[in-house]
Structures are given as C-alpha cells and as structure tokens.
Amino acid sequence: QKEVEQNSGPLSVPEGAIASLNCTYSDRGSQSFFWYRQYSGKSPELIMSIYSNGDKEDGRFTAQLNKASQYVSLLIRDSQPSDSATYLCAVRGGGGGNKLTFGTGTQLKVEL
Amino acid sequence: ETGVTQSPTHLIKTRGQQVTLRCSSQSGHNTVSWYQQALGQGPQFIFQYYREEENGRGNFPPRFSGLQFPNYSSELNVNALELDDSALYLCASSFTGQGVGGYTFGSGTRLTVV
C-alpha cells in the first residue's frame, strides 16, 4: 500500500464547475496535510494546509480532512483554465517524522 | 523576504560523472530537504538537513550525499551518475521549531544524465 494515494487522472471539469480532488494516507500518526499545485515543468506551490478535522476555506479552495477515514480532499470552486495543473497531496508527521510524503498527483484539466 | 533559490536550473551530465546542486533556503527557515521528482511522479524524499546534520533520509543509496552550511544553505552531491538519476531535483526549506508549516520549494534543477 502506498503511503499517500491519489488518482492520477486526468480529471476534466468544465470552466466554472467544482473540481474535487481526493487523497488517502496510510500513517494514522500523520499530523499535517498539504495540497500543492504544480504546473508542467515548474516546482510545487503550496496552496492549502490543514491540521485538524473538518473544512478549511481559502478563497476558491476548500481543504477537508477526516483523520478517522485517513482522507484529505481539495475542492476548487468556479474552476478556471488557469487551475489546470497537477495537484499533489502531501502529509507530514507520524512515522515519517518531519519529512513531507507526497502522492503521485492528480492532473486537473479545466475545459472552456 | 527572499525565497528558495536553486542552481543551476539545468544540467547535462554523462553517466559515471559527479554533480553538485546548490540551494539557498528562505529567510527565517533553518531546515532544508531535498527531493527527486521523476517525470509523472510525485517528489521522493532524499534527505533533510537541520543544524548542519542529516535529519532523516529516504530510500536513496549512499552516492547521494549532502551538506548544510551555517547560513542554512545546502548542497546535494550525487556520485557515479546513472541514467535513472535524470529527474527534477527540488530543494525545500522549512522552519523546525514551534508550530508547523509546509515547505517552500525552489524552482528546481533539471538534471539529465546521458
């Protein structure tokens, strides 16, 4: 079982729709959870962090965490073509210590 | 506040050669982590440096080594390069101390081994 699992996609959504990205993790001791956006050929950019169960909203982005189900999600409202990128889920803490462990990423395509 | 800077941006090396990649951490950060990202994959943890010492290592052979300097900058050295070492190498800085936070990544070094 991979430590952090994501559907590789591509996930295609029409412009203006809600994009829903999902991630599961195996280490129950994980304490911090992050979503990074990565454009092709560029480095990852932190867009959301979440540390406790529930929802956290920042502009068009909402991160959701359910530690009991070991599940993290990212919702992007009013999706724009500029949101087209690969979204990486990362976890920190537990047996992994201070390092970030990444999933393979989900490719999102927002179509006009 | 300066961000994370990496050099060089691109590099082409021959199999068997050695390479050194450099990273300057973000102002206020004291920890540097190195990641390898192959095409189509998520970043893989190589190692982390804190207080000039290795503070965790991923599943990479000893020919991958590193240093952290008193100003928190860091180097990644790879000896005896193999074709599979071709990847984007990412440096990320963070603060180890009170509180938690994400990593800030540099723009990366694209290494091609031929």
How would you characterize this protein structure?
- The complex is a heterodimer of chains A (112) and B (114).
- Chain A has 112 residues and is mainly beta.
- Chain A is 0% helix and 56% strand.
- Chain A contains no helices and eleven strands.
- In chain A, strands 2, 4, 5, 9, 10 and 11 form a six-stranded mixed β-sheet that branches. Chain A has a five-stranded antiparallel β-sheet with strand order 1-3-8-7-6, with no helix packed on it.
- In chain A, 37% of the residues are buried.
- The mean pLDDT of chain A is 94.
- Chain B has 114 residues and is an all-beta fold.
- Chain B is 0% helix and 50% strand.
- In chain B, a hairpin with a 5-residue loop joins strand 7 and strand 8.
- The interface between A and B is medium-sized, with 25 and 28 residues.
